[in-house]
Specification:
mainly alpha; Lysozyme; 11 helices; globular
């Protein structure tokens, strides 16, 4: 379900493929986005595809992610796609719906941090320490909304819901507002909860991933003129 948004026809400079998947995007969101309280603008998801793959359905990254929405092998299999004998990540009709489902899952984790393992592994009895910290903050301050929620969901798509949970929990511990995306990014690594989270998850690759995650929502929202 999603609210009514504007036309998906764009002229971002990616060539003929740029508007080839508009109907697929709208259909996938209509069928697989199940949060009517926080609707997904199809144009935002189209911009995600632009940033992920430049609308190249056969795109494969050096880390093994593939297709229009750059699905990792494990993620693709968890959402029911086959990698052999045909890699279904490279089939737009298969990949786009899964991409919508993955983004929906990431946003759900952001909104329900105390149910992290329930959402991902169907193990609601197992709790993530960082998620509990964020959940307790929500009880006092409420959940993220609007552009902050969108930033958190998009960044989770790029770097993982667990990374964002760690960043938000670290923000609480540092006396920063975990609902505010700019507060998570900080003014640089030295005062950034997001960088601290990337150090925990990505070790030696923390700085590069911090930069990537910091810029990822910005790239998407710049295309849609939401910034």
């Amino acid at each position: 379900m999603h609210a009514e948004f504007g036309s998906l026809e764009t002229n971002w400079g990616y060539g003929p493929a740029e508007n080839a998947y508009n109907d697929l995007i709208e259909e996938a969101i209509s069928q697989h986005w199940e949060d009517p309280d926080h609707p997904l603008d199809p144009l935002t998801f189209k911009a995600l595809i632009a940033v992920e793959s430049a609308f190249k359905s056969g795109a494969v990254s050096r880390t093994g992610c593939a297709g229009l929405v750059q699905l990792a092998p494990d993620t693709a299999k968890r959402f029911g796609l086959s990698l052999h004998p045909v890699d279904e990540r490279l089939i737009p009709e298969k990949a786009i719906p899964v991409g919508v489902k993955v983004l929906a899952e990431k946003q759900k984790v952001v909104l329900q941090p105390d149910n992290y393992y329930g959402i991902l592994l169907n193990r609601p009895e197992k709790k993530l320490e960082y998620g509990t910290i964020v959940h307790n903050h929500y009880l006092q301050k409420g959940t993220p909304q609007g552009l902050d929620l969108l930033h958190l969901g998009l960044a989770s798509y790029n770097g993982g819901g667990g990374t964002i949970m760690r960043a938000m929990a670290k923000a609480v511990q540092m006396g920063k507002d975990p609902l505010n995306w700019k507060a998570l990014v900080g003014n640089g690594p030295n005062d950034s909860p997001l960088f601290a989270a990337c150090q925990m998850v990505y070790k030696g690759g923390a700085y590069g991933k911090y930069q990537e995650m910091s810029n990822y929502p910005k790239k998407i929202l710049a295309l849609t003129n939401k910034l």
